[in-house]
Amino acid sequence: MSIRRVNHVVLSVSDLEKSTVFYRDVLGLRLVATLPAQDNWKEMRFFRAVGESTNHHDIAIIANATLPLPGWGKPSAPGLFHIALEVGTITELEDMGRRLKDANALMDDVYQPMHLSVYARDPDGLALEIIWRIPNADWTYEDLFRAPLDFAKAKERWGGNLATGSAAGEAA
């Protein structure tokens, strides 16, 4: 027996409304349910990726955070470094980068040998990586690197609308 895949992630946030706007309006996740606050439990909101998700929810948020996160790359307590979310095409990744930039959340655009990425921060500073999976045949497990992402060169190599990953029906 082994773990088959990640089912969902629950994030502690400081402001439920700001985080709802970010995950729904900026990232485009669908708000599917709310668990009202109870005597010993804060309100939770549940989000699902639009389209192919088979989960009840993919990300949930709970307003129970009380301490600020340290800056990017600064020492921190053990815990989550970032969450990676997947888009289907390079064009979608570039569009997401623009949306994140417009929301003042974009941190970096990165080319790695397994995926192209845009990195961002949510309203509480939680790090997110939005990826487009490089076609499996082009992956490497050796000679790993991180380099600035040039969207024009990536589109020239793979095309802007090549669907990969779950958008192409590949297993999670």
Distance between the termini: 18 Å
- Number of H/I helices: 3
- N-to-C series of helices and strands: EHEEEEHEEEEH
Sheet bearing the most strands, described? 5 strands, mixed
Proportion of β residues? 25-35%
Helix content: 10-25%
Shape from CA axes? globular
> Strand order, biggest sheet?
5-8-7-6-9
SS elements, strand count: 9
Which oligomerization state do the chains in this entry correspond to? single chain
Radius of gyration, taken over Cα atoms and rounded to an integer in Å = 17 Å
Mean pLDDT: 88
Model regions low in confidence, pLDDT < 50 over at least 5 residues: none
SS class: alpha+beta
Protein model, in words:
The model has no long low-confidence stretch (mean pLDDT 88). The longest helix has 13 residues, at 90-102. This protein has a five-stranded mixed sheet with strand order 5-8-7-6-9, with helices on one face. A four-stranded mixed sheet has the order 1-4-3-2, with helices on one face. The protein is built from three helices and nine strands, in the order βαββββαββββα. Strand 2 and strand 3 form a beta hairpin. The radius of gyration is 17 Å and the shape is globular. With 172 residues, the chain is of the alpha+beta class.
